Give the backbone structure.
Amino acid sequence: MGWLPWGSSEQEGGVKKTSGGAFESPSRTNRAKCYEARDAFFECLDRNKILDSVNSRAGVAASKAACGPADQEFEKNCAHSWVEYFKKQRVVNYQKEQTIKRIEAQGGEIAPIEAPQLPLRPQ
Amino acid sequence: MPPSCNCLGGALKTLRPSPALRRELDALRITPRRTLASSHRPNTAITSRLVAKSDLSCLLRTRNVGQQDQGLVGSLRKPLLLSRPFSNSTPRSALKTIEQVRARNKGGPFNLTAAILFICTAGGLWAYLTYEKERMARKRIADQTKGVGKPKVGGPFDLVDHNGDRFTSDDLLGKYSLVYFGFSHCPDICPDELDKMALMYDKVTEKCGPVLLPIMITCDPARDNPAVLKEYLQEFHPEIIGLTGEYENIKDVCKVYRVYFSTPPSVKPGQDYLVDHSIYFYLMDPEGDFVEAIGRNFTADQAAKVISDHIKDWEGPLKKKDRWA
């Protein structure tokens, strides 16, 4: 299925990748291509009202069925680790939004983080 | 004489809350004239002490006291004073008649000049104090990591720059440095942050001259060799210095900067993985001490302002010369 650490992305076309599925060179153009493919894939997921395309078996199957070609394009243009990262990030971002909405609906307030908290103790 | 009389009144008034003294003073109230005139009576010791003590405050108090103690010391007043209870600044010799005095003091001590002076002074003080407050806040942040027993961020390191030359922590001395940890195979945050770093660097250099070293230390030394870093950073800003090294050296530098990162220690060539790492910019002063961490919540403009303000506060020497010159 393709999210073992490496091994699934020897596809033709797309950006140049190493045998492990990482970018040969994560240059600005390559990144742009990857972001573009990602946005297209996510748009397709949005149209089909699919949130999760990575965490559950059902999610993976649904996204394959609805947006198979876009998914392949996404894999082709991005490092495999990036694909996984972005798919997970989509779920996390959605959950974050929902949490914020829920807190605001309950009359709470999300305080912006003013000062960064530093881990000041030695590791 | 009149000011002293006022002062006695002032003294009586100030001491009102103390009941024991009040009783004594009530006794004095009957013969204010005599107490002031003769100094050998038993009561006078306390009176004259009070008078002396309240002399200064009385000058400020005359306005309040003037009206209330008329019954008490009225007999000592000259008629002139009765008509000008607010006066304490005009030289008396200049004003001869009551009419003159009235004209002079119409509207009390408040006039246009006083108002302008007051507003200017208040405005000036406010601006100065606000500036000083901000400066002290920055100084406090900057000094937090100076001295003994403070948590230390940053420290000695020995790495290789993107040209393959040795680069140690000593190369940071003399200039401010903005240290960022990242890796070239970073999906989205690091490229955004490095673009921001380029903007910050340009803005700070425009304001303060070439006194800032933008530095990116890789957390992924297995893939990011000097050549990769050079090609990668060129796209963001040609001035950004990329640092890499052996895994152990990177681990050490991450440790002294309190940076968390999670590169696997041994990776196969071509392996695809991400590195999780802390994403702060660390501003270091020309002595190599940590000043402030700048998080993702800062825009390039805000961050550039924070940095320029710290640079302007710096009183020690700053190398304006280019590092490569």
Q: What stands out?
A: The interface with chain A takes residues 151, 153, 184-188, 191, 223, 228, 231-232, 235, 255, 258, 260, 268-274, 278, 280, 293-295, 297 of chain B (CB under 8 Å). The CA atoms of residues 172 and 288 of chain B lie 7 Å apart. Chain B is about 50% helix and 10% strand. The radius of gyration of chain B is 36 Å.
